[in-house]
């Protein structure tokens, strides 16, 4: 008995590679095993019965969007970033996003392409927990969010502040303890707080406590059930890792498109919002990332990096031009959407750095 790849099985059965990976992850293909980061299947395996209708298989893939607001989210840059997608005709069958954040690029790619393997990671444990919970237990998560929405929306302003404060305290207590990956309560609290806090920020203090105050939304969408279910379906078979970007090295190879969206370098000394976690990401860390990008380039991967453009504040600041001197640097205009100072929201230059 021989083995075939998920791609070969998809071509044989007339379905997408991604659907084959989902069937493997659901243990619906006897003998399927994961070698490295890819599924392999006995070449005499039969196509499992699919509960979905033929019509659904032939429909255009459902578009999904990020389930969280996220500082530095790439929704405003997608039109520029998509120009770098190397999936057509370049033998790129895998995708890695080691600073996944809100996942705007991830979900755009999952909505457009069927890939053999997808890897996402972040050092924010609560964020990764939310991704895992949506993938693995959407029903439980959606039930909790519906309860929160039903309880919160009818309250007056004072009662909302109390409800929010109680939820924030519960969230911090849970994140300080030990929870299994994909814990639905922790994920539901994170989504609730993100939808009701000031400006949709995720910010923690040096002790790691989430400390954003309540926002002033009159009727926030706390449970977007259709999108959450669509996201859950897209995340089936995706490898979700809580850890440093360097852990992606074992996944990334010559068949991979890797997108790195690290915490941006502050444009000024006072604009130093990088507190998505209690960890710092300063110039030394930016330099280490550039070296890692060089290493992944040598492996043959297609790599794209985004970051702030120091020349917005100082035209003589060549920091990124120097550390990424071996790569192509493109300056594009982007909207700064999350900023406590409304006058600072607007078009600025950002960097897209690629090795191709």
Instruction: Give the mean pLDDT.
Output: 88
Helix content: 25-40%
Q: What's the shape? A: globular
Structural class: alpha/beta
Largest sheet: 7 strands, mixed
- Our measurement of the CA-to-CA distance between the termini, rounded to an integer number of angstroms, reads 40 Å
Number of DSSP strands? 10
- The poorly predicted ranges are 50-60, 337-344
Order of helices and strands: EHHEEHHEHEHHHHHEEHEHEE
Query: Can you list the strand order of the major beta sheet?
Result: 6-5-4-7-8-10-9
Beta fraction: 5-15%
Tell me about this structure.
This protein has 356 residues and is α/β, with parallel strands linked by helices. The protein has twelve helices and ten strands. It is globular. The two termini are 40 Å apart. Mean pLDDT is 88; it is low at 50-60 and 337-344.
List the helices and strands and how they pair.
Layout: E1 3-5, H1 6-13, H2 17-25, E2 33-35, E3 38-42, H3 54-58, H4 78-81, E4 94-97, H5 104-112, E5 117-122, H6 125-136, H7 138-152, H8 157-176, H9 184-196, H10 225-235, E6 239-242, E7 256-260, H11 283-298, E8 302-308, H12 319-323, E9 328-335, E10 347-354
Parallel strand pairs: 4-5, 4-7, 5-6, 7-8
Antiparallel strand pairs: 1-3, 2-3, 8-10, 9-10
Helix pairs in contact: 1-2, 6-9, 6-10, 7-9, 8-9
Question: Brief description of this entry?
Answer:
This protein has 356 residues and is an alpha/beta fold.
